[in-house]
Design goal:
161 residues; three-stranded antiparallel β-sheet; globular; DUF1203; DUF1203 domain-containing protein
Protein backbone atom coordinates (compact mmCIF):
# COMPACT_ATOMS: atom_id res chain seq x y z
CA UNK A 1 0.00 0.00 0.00
CA UNK A 2 1.09 3.55 -0.68
CA UNK A 3 -0.11 6.82 0.84
CA UNK A 4 -0.62 9.56 -1.74
CA UNK A 5 0.01 13.32 -1.47
CA UNK A 6 -2.60 15.77 -2.70
CA UNK A 7 -2.65 16.45 -6.46
CA UNK A 8 0.53 18.45 -7.21
CA UNK A 9 -1.21 20.43 -9.98
CA UNK A 10 -3.91 21.59 -7.55
CA UNK A 11 -1.30 22.31 -4.86
CA UNK A 12 0.82 24.34 -7.28
CA UNK A 13 -2.17 26.29 -8.55
CA UNK A 14 -3.29 27.20 -5.02
CA UNK A 15 0.24 28.21 -4.03
CA UNK A 16 0.31 30.46 -7.10
CA UNK A 17 -2.86 32.23 -5.93
CA UNK A 18 -5.45 30.01 -7.61
CA UNK A 19 -8.79 29.13 -6.11
CA UNK A 20 -9.57 26.38 -3.65
CA UNK A 21 -12.54 24.00 -3.90
CA UNK A 22 -14.89 26.85 -2.92
CA UNK A 23 -13.47 29.26 -5.50
CA UNK A 24 -11.60 31.31 -2.91
CA UNK A 25 -7.89 32.05 -2.45
CA UNK A 26 -6.14 30.22 0.37
CA UNK A 27 -5.64 31.94 3.71
CA UNK A 28 -2.13 32.31 5.10
CA UNK A 29 -0.99 31.59 8.64
CA UNK A 30 2.23 30.87 10.53
CA UNK A 31 2.70 27.42 12.03
CA UNK A 32 3.19 26.93 15.74
CA UNK A 33 4.68 23.54 14.83
CA UNK A 34 1.83 21.52 16.31
CA UNK A 35 -1.05 19.97 14.38
CA UNK A 36 -0.48 21.61 11.00
CA UNK A 37 -0.17 18.64 8.61
CA UNK A 38 0.73 19.50 5.01
CA UNK A 39 -1.19 17.33 2.55
CA UNK A 40 1.64 17.47 0.01
CA UNK A 41 4.82 16.47 1.86
CA UNK A 42 2.68 14.67 4.52
CA UNK A 43 4.78 16.23 7.29
CA UNK A 44 3.81 18.87 9.83
CA UNK A 45 4.57 22.41 8.70
CA UNK A 46 7.60 23.48 10.80
CA UNK A 47 7.22 26.04 13.57
CA UNK A 48 7.55 29.57 12.19
CA UNK A 49 6.88 28.54 8.58
CA UNK A 50 3.96 29.94 6.63
CA UNK A 51 1.19 27.60 5.56
CA UNK A 52 -2.01 27.80 3.56
CA UNK A 53 -5.50 27.03 4.81
CA UNK A 54 -7.95 26.13 2.06
CA UNK A 55 -10.98 24.09 1.12
CA UNK A 56 -10.25 20.89 -0.76
CA UNK A 57 -12.39 18.17 -2.29
CA UNK A 58 -10.26 15.04 -2.81
CA UNK A 59 -12.57 13.79 -5.56
CA UNK A 60 -12.63 14.60 -9.29
CA UNK A 61 -16.15 16.09 -9.30
CA UNK A 62 -18.92 17.15 -6.94
CA UNK A 63 -21.26 14.30 -6.01
CA UNK A 64 -23.02 13.18 -2.83
CA UNK A 65 -19.96 11.38 -1.39
CA UNK A 66 -17.39 14.02 -2.37
CA UNK A 67 -16.70 15.67 0.96
CA UNK A 68 -15.13 19.12 0.92
CA UNK A 69 -13.24 20.44 3.90
CA UNK A 70 -10.23 22.33 5.16
CA UNK A 71 -6.66 21.24 4.57
CA UNK A 72 -3.24 22.78 5.19
CA UNK A 73 -0.33 23.06 2.76
CA UNK A 74 3.21 24.36 3.21
CA UNK A 75 3.05 27.87 1.71
CA UNK A 76 6.42 27.36 0.04
CA UNK A 77 7.13 24.48 -2.30
CA UNK A 78 7.77 21.19 -0.56
CA UNK A 79 8.63 17.76 -1.89
CA UNK A 80 5.46 15.66 -2.29
CA UNK A 81 5.49 12.46 -0.23
CA UNK A 82 6.91 9.44 -2.05
CA UNK A 83 7.90 7.38 0.95
CA UNK A 84 6.99 3.90 2.00
CA UNK A 85 5.23 3.12 5.23
CA UNK A 86 3.37 5.56 7.42
CA UNK A 87 3.78 9.25 6.56
CA UNK A 88 4.73 11.54 9.46
CA UNK A 89 1.28 13.20 9.57
CA UNK A 90 -0.22 9.81 10.50
CA UNK A 91 1.95 9.47 13.60
CA UNK A 92 0.72 12.42 15.64
CA UNK A 93 -2.77 11.39 16.71
CA UNK A 94 -3.96 8.47 18.84
CA UNK A 95 -6.55 7.51 16.20
CA UNK A 96 -7.85 8.24 12.71
CA UNK A 97 -11.08 7.96 10.76
CA UNK A 98 -10.84 5.72 7.71
CA UNK A 99 -13.33 5.19 4.89
CA UNK A 100 -13.02 2.97 1.83
CA UNK A 101 -14.32 3.99 -1.59
CA UNK A 102 -15.17 2.22 -4.84
CA UNK A 103 -13.66 3.13 -8.21
CA UNK A 104 -16.59 5.47 -8.90
CA UNK A 105 -15.73 7.39 -5.69
CA UNK A 106 -18.66 6.11 -3.65
CA UNK A 107 -18.28 5.07 -0.01
CA UNK A 108 -18.09 1.31 0.44
CA UNK A 109 -20.61 0.95 3.25
CA UNK A 110 -19.41 -0.88 6.33
CA UNK A 111 -15.79 0.25 5.93
CA UNK A 112 -15.81 3.47 7.94
CA UNK A 113 -14.24 3.33 11.39
CA UNK A 114 -12.19 5.25 13.89
CA UNK A 115 -9.05 3.15 14.39
CA UNK A 116 -6.13 3.43 16.77
CA UNK A 117 -2.88 4.66 15.23
CA UNK A 118 -1.21 1.36 16.17
CA UNK A 119 -3.53 -0.64 13.90
CA UNK A 120 -4.01 1.97 11.16
CA UNK A 121 -1.83 0.20 8.57
CA UNK A 122 -3.49 -3.17 9.21
CA UNK A 123 -6.99 -1.72 9.01
CA UNK A 124 -6.24 0.18 5.79
CA UNK A 125 -4.64 -2.95 4.28
CA UNK A 126 -7.68 -5.03 5.27
CA UNK A 127 -9.98 -2.66 3.42
CA UNK A 128 -7.70 -2.55 0.37
CA UNK A 129 -7.81 -6.37 0.23
CA UNK A 130 -11.47 -6.07 -0.81
CA UNK A 131 -11.46 -6.09 -4.64
CA UNK A 132 -14.42 -3.68 -4.62
CA UNK A 133 -12.36 -1.03 -2.84
CA UNK A 134 -10.29 1.34 -4.98
CA UNK A 135 -8.81 3.48 -2.19
CA UNK A 136 -9.04 4.34 1.49
CA UNK A 137 -9.13 7.89 2.78
CA UNK A 138 -7.60 8.70 6.14
CA UNK A 139 -9.13 11.62 8.03
CA UNK A 140 -8.77 13.27 11.39
CA UNK A 141 -10.89 11.42 13.96
CA UNK A 142 -11.43 14.72 15.80
CA UNK A 143 -12.29 17.15 13.01
CA UNK A 144 -12.93 14.91 9.97
CA UNK A 145 -10.24 16.77 7.96
CA UNK A 146 -8.84 14.81 5.02
CA UNK A 147 -5.24 13.69 5.68
CA UNK A 148 -4.20 11.38 2.84
CA UNK A 149 -5.35 8.55 0.59
CA UNK A 150 -4.06 4.98 0.52
CA UNK A 151 -3.99 2.86 -2.62
CA UNK A 152 -2.64 -0.51 -3.52
CA UNK A 153 1.01 -0.16 -4.62
CA UNK A 154 0.14 -0.77 -8.28
CA UNK A 155 -2.32 2.16 -8.21
CA UNK A 156 -0.30 4.52 -6.01
CA UNK A 157 0.68 6.93 -8.79
CA UNK A 158 -2.89 8.21 -9.17
CA UNK A 159 -3.36 11.68 -7.76
CA UNK A 160 -6.00 12.81 -5.30
CA UNK A 161 -8.68 15.12 -6.60
Amino acid sequence: MQFTPYDPDFVGAVRAGGSDAHGQPAERAVSDGIGVPCRSCLCDVPKGAEYLILAARPFPAPQPYAETGPIFLCADACTPWEGDGVPPILTTSPDYLIKAYTSDHRIRYGTGAVVAAGVLMAEVARRLSDPGVAFVDVRSARNNCFQTRARRDAEAGQVIG
